[in-house]
Amino acid sequence: MDFWVLWIIAGIVLVIAELVTGTFYLLVLGVGGFAAALVAWAGGNALLQVGAFGVVAIGGVMLVHHWHETHRKKDEGRSNFLDRGQPVVLEGWANESAGLARVRYRGTSWDARVASASVRPTPGSTLYIEAQEGQTLVVAEAPPV
Question: Domain for residue 81, yes or no?
């Protein structure tokens, strides 16, 4: 069996494996396999084939990693937070000048920080969860968009 056929098979297996993971890392490795197959088909030796695979794979992995990092930073702390937008009731202020309060949520009291420094709601007001910083909820008067 020719080397280019082996590289094509390896590329197909990696692309199929990518369909299971959904991370795009195996996809670029599969594309690297196809690049090595092209070099093998053109008559390149084993060193050129591995070099083509390595250049495409490493460059692709770097691009995918960069893409993941830039998109992860944009959504950090917001998109996977299931309590976002849920209502809480302001029980009282722990430190009103610092915006620290106690709120009632899911039947228990939580520490909270009011997101807006200028807004100071009265106890009993309904606020909405925007984010969570450790064990402290970040709340605001209007539900997040």
Answer: no
Regarding whether 25 and 56 lie in a shared domain, the answer is yes
Whether the Cβ atoms of residue 35 and residue 48 lie closer than 8 Å to each other: no
Does residue 28 sit within a domain? yes
- Residue pLDDT, tens place only, 65-124: 998 888 775 545 455 578 888 999 999 999 888 889 999 999 999 999 998 877 788 899
Burial of 40 (0-12, 13-18, 19+ CB in 10 A): buried
Longest dimension (CA), the chain: 78
Cα 104 to Cα 29: distance, rounded to the nearest angstrom: 50
Render pLDDT for 20-76 as a digit per residue (tens, 0 to 9).
888 889 999 999 999 999 999 999 999 999 999 999 999 999 999 998 888 775 545
Residue 82 resides in a domain: no
Domain membership of residue 64 as a residue range: 3-75
For residues 12 and 67, membership in a common domain is answered with: yes
Is residue 145 in some structural domain? no
The pTM of the full predicted model, rounded to 2 decimals, is 0.53
Helix H or strand E encompassing 7: helix 3-21
Residue pair 46/3 in contact by the 8 Å Cβ criterion: yes
